[in-house]
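User: My collaborator sent over this chain with a note saying "see what the structure looks like." That's all I know about it. Can you take a look?
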Amino acid sequence: MESRKEQAFVDAVQVWSHQMYRVAMSYLHTEQDAEDAVSAAIEAAWKNLSRIRKEEAIPAYLVRCTVNAAKAELRRKRRTEPIEAYQEIMAADEPEDRIMDYLSGLREKDRLLLILKYQEDLREAEIASILRIPRGTVSSRINRLLKRLREELTKEESKHDGR
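Assistant: Without extra context I'll predict from the sequence alone. Here is the result:
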C-alpha cells in the first residue's frame, strides 16, 4: 500500500511535469534532452523521497531536481560536443528576439529566476523555496534584472532610431 507521501509525490509529478519540462527546455533547448532531464529528475526525487520532510515541499524539490538534471546534461554535452552560441537562434530585430538575446546572455541563475517568475508564473516565495535563497533576494534580483533589461531595450531602440 502506498504511503501518503508517495501518493503526494505521484500527484505532484502529474501537476508539475509540464513546468518541469519547460524549465528543462530553458536550459537544454531540445525536446529529447528536456524529456531526459525531467525523467532523471523524477527518478532522483523518487530515490530521495524519504529526505523530504513535508509533502508541500515535493513540488519545489521536483523543480530543483529538474534544474540539477538539466545542468548535469549541459555538463555532459560540453564534454561530448561543442555548443554553438545561443545568440544565433534569433536573427530578427523584433523586441521578443532582443529579450531572448538578453536572457541568453544572463548567468544561468539569473535566467532561471526570470523564467520561473514570468514563464512559469511562480510566486517569489515558491522561487525562493526552489532555489533555496531568501525571498528578498529573489525580489531584488528580479528587480535588478528587469531594470537592466529595460536599459538594454532602450539602448537598442536608440540605436535603431538613429539617436
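A starting point for your reply to your collaborator: DSSP finds seven helices and no strands in the chain.
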